[in-house]
User: Fold this.
Amino acid sequence: MLQQDPHQRLWLINHRNAELIHRAEQQRLASVKPEVPAGHPRTRPLDIFQASLGRAFAELRRALSDAEAPCDDPAPTAPHP
Assistant:
């Protein structure tokens, strides 16, 4: 029986580990569920709700920024040394 060099054993362990990782990755990719398309009926109501909510917040921000009066106070000045 041939004795293996420690470097050969380490190479075999690393090679086998890489094979196992590759097989596991292939198995994971094969078992992943397909993604739901963007226009899928299940996501459409949520998209509509998010868009309307975004418009409402935009109108609120616009109304608040219009209601703010400009400040008449002069900017504070730094003391001169």
